[in-house]
Amino acid sequence: MFSGIIESTAKVTAIEKEQENVHFTLSCPFVKELKIDQSIAHNGVCLTVVKKTDSTYTVTAMKETLDRSNLGLWIVGTEVNVERSMLMNGRLDGHIVQGHVDQTARCIDVQENGGSWFFAFQYKSSKEMAKRGYITVDKGSVTVNGVSLTVCNPTEDTFQVSIIPYTYEYTNFHSIKIGSIVNIEFDIIGKYVSRIMGK
C-alpha cells in the first residue's frame, strides 16, 4: 500500500525484454536501502525489486502491467516517480493508493497559473467502467503517475488537477506535456461504493 506522496524520481538505466516480460533497471537516491522482494510504486505501478547492485535495482513488468500502464513507453533515461510502501506507523499524507494502475490517460491541457499549474487529462470511459468505479468526482482523489491529487472540474471522461511548485519540481510532472500518456489509479473507496451501488 502507498500514500501517493512521491519520495524521489528514478532514472531508467537499462531495459531487457524476456518473452512477454520486461526487466527495467533504474537508479535512485535510496538504492542502497532497498532489499530484494521490496515493493516500490513506479509512476503508480507497484513492482517488486528482483535484483540490485550498489547503484541500481531491477524490477519486472508482465504483459498485463505493460498493457494497462505507460511502462511500455519507457526508454533509457525516462524519469519515473517512485515511492516505497507505507510504514504502518507513518502518516497517510495522501490517500490510500494500491499501486494497481487502472488505465492510462492523455494530457490534453497544461496551464501555468501564478506559479502553480493546471493539468487536464482525458481517459477512456463507458457506463460499464463507471459502474466499476472508474470515474473521477469533484474534490475526490486520483493518482496520476503515482502522485496523490485532488480532482477538479471532472466530466464524464476528463479531469483537472492543480500542481504546486514543489510537486512540479520534485516529480516528473515538469516533463508532462500535452499528449503525454500518464498512469491513473481511481480511488479504491469509490470503486467499492460503485460496486455496492451496482448490485
Report on this model:
There is one protein chain. By secondary structure, this protein is mostly beta strands. The chain has two domains: 8-84, Elongation Factor Tu (Ef-tu), domain 3 (Beta Barrel), CATH 2.40.30.20; 103-197, Elongation Factor Tu (Ef-tu), domain 3. Helices cover 14% and strands 40% of the residues. The protein has four helices and twelve strands; from the N terminus they run E-E-E-E-E-H-E-E-E-H-E-E-E-H-E-H. It has helices at 63-68, 127-131, 165-170, 188-197; strands at residues 8-18, 21-27, 39-42, 45-52, 57-61, 79-84, 103-113, 116-123, 141-144, 147-150, 158-163, 181-186. The strands form two sheets. A six-stranded antiparallel beta barrel has the order 1-2-5-4-3-6. The longest helix is centred in the last third of the chain and has 10 residues, at 188-197. The radius of gyration is 16 Å and the shape is globular. The relative contact order is 0.20.
